[in-house]
Predict the 3D structure of the following.
Amino acid sequence: MKKLAKNIFYDVATDGTNLGVVMGEDAVVCIDLPVDPLEAGEWRREVRQFSGGKPIRAVVFTSSERLNSECIAIVGAPVVIQNQMFAQVTMPLEPLPSMPLEPPPPMPAPLRDLLATPHWTFETSVSIVLHGDKPLFVDVVYQGGCSPDGSFVFVRDQGIAFLGEHATVGHPPLLAQADLPRWQEVLQALKANSSLRLVVPGRGTPTDPATAADATLAYIQTALAQVRAMVRAGKPRSELATLVPNLMAQYGPKSTRGQKLTLDLDAVGRHVRAGLEHIYDGLKSGTLK
């Protein structure tokens, strides 16, 4: 676990996503979880050991891409999620019987445990207080853009924010659920935020706000320009695959030799293509200019 400031830490999951920990005198707030259940269990043990056994006050999710109900059940801490994200978590939890008079099938254990875990939902923002001689305030603020439910997590008065999938450094951002105009507005506002000195991107090394925002804006704008050129040339959607290698070469993850990451580069390429298809469909339908 790497130290960002007194009581503020981050670590990197094996798939490259950044995880955060804010440690008060009485409890801990975790920011996102590993998406692999085995790794989530290891992460919980690591946090417990690192914090001296302090309870986890809450797990804050920056977006629905980070959600895994089994991992939530394993960690067993209250969850903080934006309202739209909560709908995505709970909608599958209502199994329908095959016949009106038959009992519903049993609910899978992780989902049953998830329902038993308390949740804090919010519309625009929520604050979590970690008590001590000097209380720490963890502020979760809805942004939108990268996904319908994407949020920033600020550690108040510390100049540090966790950005989730809103920003990536050295990795292609996920575009498949994005509202690209809103996302670019969020990133421009991030660059202008003089109260921040350090940000933790969803993937990549913590850096200053302008560097994180510019790295992500460059990818978005390049992808937009390349797909727009294909649409104007009348090329079919299937040819988007030809853009993936170039984008991976420019913005994709490099060799992971010597690192603990176990990135599936084929999966990363599929995410890149899904983002390009999202742009193509938006341009063709007129919902994206």
In short: Residues 2-208 form a domain with the Metallo-beta-lactamase; Chain A fold (CATH 3.60.15.10). The first strand starts at residue 2 and ends at 5.
